[in-house]
Amino acid sequence: MNEGGIVIIGAGQAGLQAAASLRESGFDGPVTMIGDEPIPPYQRPPLSKAYLAGKVDAAGLFLRAPGFYVEHRIGCETSSMAVSIDRGGRRIRLGDGREIAYDHLVLATGSRNRPLPVSGAELAGVYQLRSITDADRIQEAIGEARNIAIVGAGFIGLEFASICAARGLCVTVIEAADRPMARAVSEPIAAFFRETHEKAGIRFLFGSGVQAIEGRTGRVEALRLSDGTACPADLVLIGIGVLPNQELAAEAGLRVEDGIVVDPVLVTDDPSISAIGDCARFPTRFAAHGVARVESVQNAIDQARCVAARIAGRPAPYDAVPWFWSDQGGHKLQMVGLPLPGDVSVRRPTAGGFAVFRYRDAYLTGIETVDSATEHMAARRIIARGLSPTPDEAADPAFDLKALAMGRGGA
Ligand code: FAD
Questions:
Q1: For 100-144, how does the pLDDT look when each residue is reduced to its tens digit (9 = 90+)?
Q2: Pair (205, 289) in one structural domain
Q3: Does ligand 1 lie within 6 Å of residue 336's CB atom?
Q4: Which residue puts its alpha carbon closest to atom 31 of ligand 1?
């Protein structure tokens, strides 16, 4: 023992949950979170939803009240960057030169926005959205903006697009694929949201890329698109995915492959180091190739709980069912499982909206729902239990999904 207790690098969704779950599990030793952001852990999902829409303020984003950390004896270092790991000596070094000893280290470093490698990306008026600081800057700029261009029709880009459209702004979304959320959702879901957004006045340019971002006197004025045309813009949001923050682990000699590689109990190559959340690549029965890196609140929370339970003496493999949500244009999209873009889609009407069941080789890989919370909850159980109603059953609104989910058979 070097009396360092548990040190967690990254004070985000996963890091906070690991610290809180350690205490809930009865772990009594020192727990220290190291975070490079200037404020304690907060939720990111509202940044592209209620927070930017002005429906929740910054105080409503914090994951715990200020007194929580003292009360639970959790050290929460803000504005502190971990710059290296000395695995032999079981110490980490911070940017200010301090060293902190650990018995077990949890890497919860999250991910960062993928940069758009074109000229002009540094111009004023060009944004990415990851932190509360980013959201505040965008919020300030939006008041002056008229033409909004969004690069990437992923979840964050589309959530932002619908907020801007609701404010009466002129919104163009530029996307390389032929439909929105192409990597993440089925064609029927993509078509539904395309229509919803178009009805709200959002213009899509599919099959289109960005050659350059152009401006004068340091401020953006237009995007030069791949076909040479110009798309006028006084505010640009780039939302083209994220990269895992894995460099610290790689420099310490841990295995990384688009994420820090962990085993079924979320331990890295080094038995004294775990990795959780957006930064971790883990084995899972839910993924086509048996491994995945998942960027979601569910994944961050459940992996943190799994690691805390192991540290507290109750080890178990990580086996939580992956689920995700997005709010766009007044609709709630919820997804369970990890289907691939080529998986077959079977549509099912629901009381509030519709569901899409995804199949690969006649086996159910995921269920997507729109405005159908009850079906989503049933879907979580169905996927978790590895059940696979036939495509005909899935399409039949009379087939009792809830009964199937609860283990009471079909219709
Ligand atoms: P993070 O929450 O990103 O935390 C990692 C922290 O570690 C960060 O604060 C980072 O700065 C810090 N860090 C990194 N390196 C170091 C270092 N060396 N030293 C110290 N600190 C370091 N998910 C959903 O499920 N549903 C949604 O609707 C949804 N919407 C989203 C909307 C937005 C705008 C964003 C940005 C994300 C959204 N997500 C959503 C994703 C979700 O927020 C993430 O999957 C989740 O936050 C991951 O948690 P994490 O702890 O792994 O990473």
A1: 999 999 999 999 999 999 999 999 999 999 999 999 999 999 999
A2: no
A3: no
A4: 45
Strand partners, 282: 292
Residues in the chain: 411
Rounded to whole angstroms, the Cα distance separating 165 from 329 reads: 9
Q: Ligand 1 in contact with 365 (CB < 6 A)?
A: no
C-alpha 295 to ligand 1 mean position (Å): 8
Residue 404: HSE in the Cβ half-sphere, 13 Å Cα cutoff: 22
Ligand 1, pocket-test mutation among 107, 109, 242, 274, most atoms within 8 A of CB: 109
Angle subtended by helix axes 13-24 and 297-311, to nearest 10: 40
Q: Provide the CATH number for the domain around residue 161.
A: 3.50.50.60
Q: What is the mean pLDDT of the chain?
A: 96
Q: Is the CB of 156 under 6 A from ligand 1?
A: yes
pLDDT bracket for residue 407 (50, 70, 90)? confident
Tell me the two tokens of residue 245: 């923050």
Assigned token pair, 343: 């998986």
**Number of domains within the chain:** 3
CA 128 – CA 267 distance, rounded (Å) = 32
Range of the domain at 227: 126-240
Minimal-distance CA residue to ligand 1 atom 45: 296
What distance in Å separates the CA atoms of residue 3 and residue 124, rounded to the nearest whole number? Answer: 47
Instruction: Indicate the helix (H) or strand (E) that contains 119.
Output: none
Query: If you take atom 27 of ligand 1, which residue's CA is the nearest one?
Result: 45
pTM > 0.70:
yes
pLDDT digits (tens, 9 = 90+) for 185-243: 999 999 999 999 999 999 999 999 999 999 999 999 999 999 999 999 999 999 999 99
- Give the span between the Cα atoms of 81 and 104, in whole angstroms: 18
82 and 185 inside one domain: no
Structural tokens at position 31: 């727990």
Per-residue pLDDT at 368:
98
As a whole number of angstroms, the distance between CA 273 and CA 375 comes to 38
> Which is the closest atom of ligand 1 to the Cα of 278?
52
